[in-house]
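**User:** Here is a favour to ask of a fellow structure person. Please take any protein you like and set down a full record of it. No explanation is needed for now; the record alone will do.

**Assistant:**
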Amino acid sequence: MVKKVKCPTCSRLAPWSPDNAWRPFCSERCRQIDLGAWAADKFAIPGAPLEADELTGDGAVRFSAPHTLN
């Protein structure tokens, strides 16, 4: 028996299986609606707002390429 979950966009039941390419969504349309909402800043991950220098990379921790053994 395939488990069914509520689509986060429309609340219809969607199969949770490898056969559902859009899981947890019921369709590509619902997946695109959700992606558009994230792109339009309708959703946000909670946390303190970033300062301008954190966005531009000024003062950010810099990483170097990993060292290789010869």
The longest strand covers residues 4-6. Strands lie at 4-6, 13-15. The longest helix spans residues 28-39.
